[in-house]
Design brief:
Blueprint lengths: L1 E12 L2 E13 L4 E5 L6 H7 L10 E9 L2 E2 L5 H10 L1 E4 L3 H4 L6 H12 L4 H14 L5 H4 L9 H12 L6 E5 L7 H18 L2 E6 L2 H7 L2 E6 L2 E7 H6 L4 H7 L51 E3 L2 E3 L8
Parallel strand pairs: 3-8, 3-9, 6-7, 7-8
Antiparallel strand pairs: 1-2, 1-4, 4-5, 9-10, 10-12, 11-12
Helix pairs in contact: 4-5, 5-7, 7-8
The structure holds adenosine-5'-triphosphate (ATP) and magnesium ion.
């Protein structure tokens, strides 16, 4: 299991260190798809990148919590263990396929390099594996493709190449941060189908970062809803779709259930996500929430409302 446990991260904004991710917990199990969903600026990418300790290159620091891979802390791993973990056990698929590929090396040399970094294969064997992987992700003329450079491919093809690279060392987990956002709608569907197909075939644990609740419904087993650095609701997808409990989740899903106390319906989500350093002391969503009252001014526990594995960080969580 890959577990993010009570993780808090700080970033530097105008010379000050401020909290940008606050007490986030996630559990990613083999064979399951977990969606991490929320508006832009909620801290989804910071969280996703922290899983491989990639944010540290951009001044992101862990202030508390832990990340455990099969019980072992990523923060206690040696550089060598961490190198093997990145790509070997846990691989990433990024939003913008061009930035993740090096324009001056051929597709073949980049895939073969990743394969040989993690697997003890000869150059010839690695080349064959690269061809097999490219076939697996639905590419054609793969022998020829190995000699091509990233800029000669379409966005969708580049993302397929990146997915092939992510699969290179047979990882157990894939972290996909908005893997289709930069692609045309028709291509998006095919890439998502490909990811899901590989996930099932290989029994991978997949963390899918997205702002699209429709995609969550289609792809995920579980979902964690993130707002202003915190997980505000989490649980099995079906549960949350049938009974969304946090007003932010309901707003994101676009449902407007009758709210008994006020007698009205939830308005369209107005306002913006507050940036790190500007969060309210109590519930982070309160300034935008139709249900907010004095009780929302105090910090809210992650499971202020819960039913089985379904939890919501809302004192009005039962008002659904
Ligand atoms: N390295 C950094 N230094 C300073 N601030 C950062 C850094 N990385 C992210 N932030 C800020 O932290 C907040 C969360 O950023 P993050 O990229 O995690 O959001 P996100 O949920 O992935 O949004 P999007 O949907 O737009 O990708 C944003 O306000 C962002 O500006
Ligand atoms: Mg992001």
């Amino acid at each position: 299991m890959l577990e993010v446990r009570n993780l808090s991260l700080s970033v530097s904004i105008q010379g000050n260190r401020v909290e940008a991710v606050s007490g986030v917990s996630l559990q990613l199990e083999p064979g399951r798809v977990l969606g991490l969903v929320g508006e832009s600026g909620c801290g989804k990418s910071l969280t996703a990148q922290a899983i491989l300790r990639l944010g540290e290159f951009q001044g992101v620091e862990k202030s508390s919590g832990d990340i455990l891979l099969d019980g072992e802390s990523l923060f206690e791993m040696s550089d060598e263990q961490l190198r093997r973990t990145r790509g070997g056990h846990v691989a990433m698929v990024f939003q913008e396929p061009m930035t993740a590929l090096n324009p001056v090396f051929s597709i073949g040399s980049q895939i073969i390099e990743v394969i040989r970094l993690h697997l003890d294969l000869s150059k010839q064997q690695a080349r064959q594996r690269a061809i097999d992987l490219l076939n697996d992700v639905g590419m054609q003329n793969t022998e020829q493709l190995l000699k091509q450079y990233p800029d000669s491919l379409s966005g969708g093809m580049r993302q397929r190449v990146l997915i092939a690279m992510a699969m290179a060392a047979d990882p157990d987990y894939i972290i996909a941060d908005e893997p289709t956002t930069a692609l045309d709608v028709s291509v998006q569907k095919r890439i998502i189908a490909l990811l899901l197909n590989l996930q099932k075939k290989r029994g991978l644990g997949l963390l899918l970062v997205t702002h699209d609740f429709g995609l969550v419904a289609e792809m995920c087993d579980d979902v964690a809803v993130m707002y202003a650095g915190q997980i505000v609701e989490s649980g099995p997808v079906k549960e949350i779709f049938d009974h969304p409990s946090h007003p932010y989740t309901r707003a994101l899903m676009g449902c407007r259930p009758e709210v008994s106390q006020s007698g009205g319906s939830l308005p369209v989500i107005g306002g913006q996500v507050p940036p790190p350093g500007r969060w309210p002391t109590g519930c982070h969503f309160a300034p935008r929430c139709a249900l907010a009252d004095a009780s929302c001014a105090a910090p809210v526990a992650t499971d202020a409302w819960h039913e089985g594995r379904h939890t919501a960080r809302c004192v009005h969580g039962e008002a659904r």
